[in-house]
Each structure stands twice: as C-alpha cells, then as structure tokens.
Amino acid sequence: MSSTQRAAVIYYPGRVDRKKLVAAVEAITLPGGWEPTLWLATSDSETGGPQTLRALAQNATHILVSGGDGTIRGVAEALVISGRTDVTMGIVPSGTGNVLARNLGVELGNVQRAVTAGLTGKKYSVDVGRADLVFANGELDQRFFTGIAGVGLDARIMQNTNPALKRKIGWIAYIEGGIKALPAKFDRLLVSVDGREPRRLKLHSLLVGNAGWLPGNISLMPDARLDDGVLDVAAIGPRRIWNWIDFWSRVTWQNKVMRPLSLGRRWMDSTANLKTIENLCGAHIHVLSEKPVDIQLDGDPLGKIVKVDFNAVPRALSVRV
Ligand SMILES: [Mg+2]
Fold first, then answer.
1. pLDDT by residue (tens digit) across 31-76?
2. Which of 86, 89, 99, 255 has the fewest Cβ atoms within 10 Å of its own Cβ atom?
C-alpha cells in the first residue's frame, strides 16, 4: 500500500518558503516509503491545471497545493475534469484569499500542520461549481470554481487589477476597496434559479457561492455549505455607494452576531433592504445579460459573457484536511 503512494506538490513559487515546505513533506513521505515527490511550480501561463495533469500522468495519489485561490481553482478544475476522485487535494494556504481553505478549516500560517493534514488527513468529498459560459464574442467554455464566482462589478474590478497587486491585497479585499471608490453603475441581469420564473435584477454584482466564508470572518452567504449540492446566490444592488458600507457591516457583524439567533434573523429579514441583498440558493442558476458583462471565478477574471449557467456538481472533488 505505502509503495503506491506519491505526493505531487503544486506551488506558486513567489510566495512559498520552499525549504519549510520540502521539510514538512519529506517528514511524511520518507518514513512512509512513498514514491519520490513531484515538485511542480506554477507560472503566469500555467496556473495549476497543466501541472495537475502532469502529476496524474506520473501516478500522483496525493496532490498538495501551495498557493492562493487561483492556484487552487486551477488544480481543482483539472482534478474534476479528469474524474479522478481517488486522487486527493490538500491545501497549504499561501495567498490572501483562501476561500476554500478557510471553509475547510485549514490552519493559515502553519505550513507543517497544513502539509500533514493535506497528505494524511481525513478524506472528504466536496461540491464544486461549474460555469457553462457563453462569451460576448460567441465562444463557449466550461470552467469550475471552488469558492465564489461573480458577475458584474466585482469581476470588472478584477479584470482591471494588476495581478501583483491582487495577490498582495487579496482579491476579496480588493473588490471591497475598489467598489467603494467607483461610481455606481448597474448591470441588468435575468436570473432564474432551478428553472423557476426568471427575475429581472438591476445590480452591481451577482455572487454565486459554493463556499461562503470569506477572509476577515465575513460571511457573505451564511447558509453556504461545501457539500449540500446547492449554490448560494447573493444579488447586490444598493441604490447608493454608502449602501456598500452598510452591506459590508451587515455581512460582517450582523451575520456573525444576529444570524444564529432566530430573533436576530427575523430582525435582519424585516429590516433588510431587500433590494440590497437577496439570498437565494439552488443547484442551477441561469443568468442572462442584456449587455456583455464581466465574470470572475475564485478571483480569476475570464472576460465578458452574455450568458452563464452555474451548476453545483455534488461531491466532485476529494480533499484532505
Ligand atoms: Mg453549497
């Protein structure tokens, strides 16, 4: 059994303490008699997907990702497409977002513990989100995400952010900061959840979450779970900029403090500006846009689309934590 195990470490080289990482991995693989570890660095053009395919071709059984949300998305996408749920993914968080890592309860900032959990921890199957995209130029594509996708202003900000700055600040924080600084501009989307009557929404951003916890203990989608087979939707369309501030205070403080209490929940529901936040969930979210609109998956901007179908793919990814 032990002779057939092989770790592949897919890492973003700019941020990782390679010595620490090697020591932590070898502390497990050498005494365990694992096959020699594969070390695969990511680059600007290959952000995790191609490395994952190489690792699978060389019989990796345990993939360890050391990087941010973009690297994790690339690896998860390749694993899901390959259908290899026998191969597990562990996470050594090194970015600033780490939406999936936080949702899985991976300890941030402790390389040794993250490596141990990622290689030898309990195996779980989690959902991923699938996006079937129709781009403004008519091209089609199918992509996957593990954390949060966005259509509208958040994606437009990501599109216009230089990658180094995005990595430094973290994409969620950047979106928050960027949105407060921008003049209000709305997108008009037709949104249908699970085949129900489509709703016409005028909004800043439509966020679709597979995982709901964000950095800074912000819970944008308090009910989002990683294995419930549904995606959570937050439609954000405040009338004025200051509503964004109200929106963020609402999600940071009120979700944490008030949401768990049924009275608090009723209070929130009765006082919430329903045009500001509407939480919905479903296995299938159909989105049509009147005009080309930007889309991002886990902080990766993909360009302008006119249509996207989001689907929850239940338990499509095996992780170790
Ligand atoms: Mg879910």
1. 999 999 999 999 989 999 999 999 999 999 999 999 988 899 999 9
2. 86
- Give distance in angstroms: CA of 207 to centre of ligand 1: 13
Predicted TM-score (pTM) of the model is 0.84
Q: How far is the CA of 107 from the centre of ligand 1 (A)?
A: 21
Residues 6+ apart with CB under 8 A from 285: 191, 192, 193, 208, 231, 233, 309, 310, 311
The runs of H, that is alpha helices, within 219-284 are: 242-249, 255-257, 262-271
Calpha distance 145→3 (Å, rounded) = 33
Which tens digit of pLDDT belongs to each residue from 120-147?
Answer: 999 999 999 999 999 999 999 999 999 8
Distance in Å, CA 49 to ligand 1 centroid: 23
- DSSP annotation string for 121-166: S-EEEEEEEEEEEEETTS-EEEEEESSEEEEEHHHHHHHTS-HHHH
